[in-house]
Specification:
350 residues; 17 strands
Length: 350
């Protein structure tokens, strides 16, 4: 979460079966669909289905959330929408992402609203997270516990919750609210936890013939960047117990990184094996990539197509051999990135 909080509250016993309090106030606003493109759900036979035993609408009603917030909810997205590579990874791991937000963002966080993700079959991963330096809670606690931390200087809370074997990660913010958000967020998370069922189905497998490996050699990086490059050393364990990294492992994501070793350009590839199902929904979403921009659809020789944009960095999502590849290049150079995209298909084929 971009803005973590120093004030910590440990919430114990998020028990299933809680009932929703009666509605007593009218909604403050009516959300509209996230423009400009319609939400598109994958229809190909090989597309994975969520396995978390709930939906965004079942977890939380718009009116229920709106009664808690000062500003109106303008944007609502649910499990049918794929906005970015991370969303495709989470879906392929059996999870879902939900968001209810206002008009403004700071970095990737809505100034008003709630963003949450669910990942099934994550009990062991959550246990490792709880025992790590990143857990902001009582590491000796047992049962369905959560570390919910609210910022004393800004109206924002975040947390990590285990409900059965499903991991819930969330960020809640309410711009302009002067009072402590902790009681509100504790109650909200407890109610949502009661609506999460047991994981359904079994883990998804990529279709036969999917690209399942990346060329992580220095030669591949040199070709891709256009300058002599070396493969970066394997990442240390830092951050690997966090939610996004866990979801990536569940989806069998692999990563290659290169640098020129002189403070010059860097490049990173991430491969989601079998993730080609996500390319068309991603293209149809019309979503702006935070800190990057609105991606443009383009050809990339040797691939089935690409979406790319340049902002703080240059990024692309590329469909190739029934899989999805995320490509990140820094520093941002639109012309140079176009040239790199033109070489990418050959690098992946090699």
């Amino acid at each position: 979460m971009p803005r973590r909080a120093p004030v910590l509250v440990l919430v114990l016993g998020l028990l299933l079966g809680l009932t929703l309090a009666a509605c007593t106030a009218p909604p403050a606003g009516t959300p509209t669909p996230n423009p400009p493109a319609p939400v598109v759900s994958p229809t190909r036979a090989e597309a994975p289905e969520p396995r978390v035993g709930t939906t965004c609408a079942h977890l939380l009603g718009v009116d229920e959330l709106q009664r808690l917030l000062l500003a109106p909810i303008r944007v609502q997205t649910d499990e049918t929408r794929i906005d970015d590579f991370g969303g495709a990874v989470l879906r392929q791991a059996g999870g879902i992402r939900c968001a209810w937000g206002g008009d403004d963002r700071t970095d990737t966080t809505y100034d008003t609203g709630l963003t949450l993700s669910l990942l099934p079959d994550a009990e062991g991963d959550y246990a490792r997270y709880r025992s790590s330096q990143y857990f902001e809670g009582d590491a000796a606690g047992t049962g369905p516990t959560s570390g919910i931390h609210c910022d004393s200087s800004a109206p924002i809370c975040g947390g990590e919750v285990l409900v059965g074997t499903t991991w819930l990660s969330f960020t809640y913010s309410d711009k302009g609210r002067a009072s402590d958000l902790t009681p509100t967020v504790v109650d909200l998370v407890t109610r949502m936890a009661s609506r999460i069922g047991k994981p359904t189905g079994s883990a998804w497998s990529p279709p036969t013939g999917s690209l399942d490996r990346l060329p992580c050699t220095g030669a591949a990086g040199t070709t891709l960047i256009g300058r002599t490059a070396v493969a970066s050393a394997p990442e240390e364990e830092t951050g690997t117990v966090l939610f996004d990294a866990v979801a990536a492992r569940h989806a069998n994501v692999s990563v290659c990184s290169w640098s020129t070793g002189d403070g010059g350009p860097t490049a990173t590839l991430q491969l989601l094996p079998g993730g080609g199902w996500a390319f068309d929904p991603l293209a149809a979403s019309g979503a702006t990539w935070p800190l990057i921009g609105v991606p443009l659809r383009s050809a990339s020789p040797g691939t089935d197509g690409a979406l790319h944009a340049c902002g703080d960095t240059c990024e692309a999502a590329v469909s190739v051999q029934r899989s999805l590849v995320a490509f990140d290049s820094f520093p941002p150079d639109a012309a140079g990135f176009d040239a790199q995209l033109a070489r990418l298909g050959g690098v992946l084929a090699g």
